[in-house]
Amino acid sequence: QVQLVESGGGLVQPGGSLRLSCAASGTIFRISTMGWYREAPGKQREWVASITSGIRSGLSTNYADSVKGRFTISRDSAKNAVYLQMNSLKPDDTAVYYCNTYPSARTYWGQGTQVTVSS
Predict the structure, then answer these.
(1) Averaged pLDDT of the chain
(2) What CA–CA distance (Å, rounded) separates 107 from 105?
């Protein structure tokens, strides 16, 4: 059974930074491409970034255009963790952030972590 627990959210001023963490349990983590997603108030959940497992070849990352150049996804397979470093945060980044496999699996959604960007 896979369990994903997100942490690291909070209130930050525009231009600030946060680092989100996702702790994963279950063996599927090591072979899965992992992703970060977010859901803003009144909007549908959207994909933010993803990172491959690195098992067959080197790690590869992809980002939504809205966060490219500001966010960095990484993973530590030894710790079963995936991270999202968020810099130059904007009010539009305010959302609940979730990690999941990529593509996402319905049964893997956790509680998420709230990120609020406001002055």
Answers:
(1) 95
(2) 6
Q: What pLDDT does residue 8 have?
A: 98
Q: Is 62 exposed, middle or buried (0-12, 13-18, 19+ CB in 10 A)?
A: middle
Please list, in sequence order, all residues whose beta carbon lies within 8 angstroms of the beta carbon of residue 100, skipping any fewer than 6 positions away.
Answer: 4, 34, 35, 37, 108, 109
pLDDT in tens, 13-60: 999 999 999 999 887 888 899 999 999 999 999 999 999 998 888 899
How many Cβ atoms sit within 10 Å of the Cβ of residue 67?
22
Sheet of 18-25, strand order? 3-7, 18-25, 81-86, 71-76
Query: 29: closest CA among 52, 9, 46, 49?
Result: 52
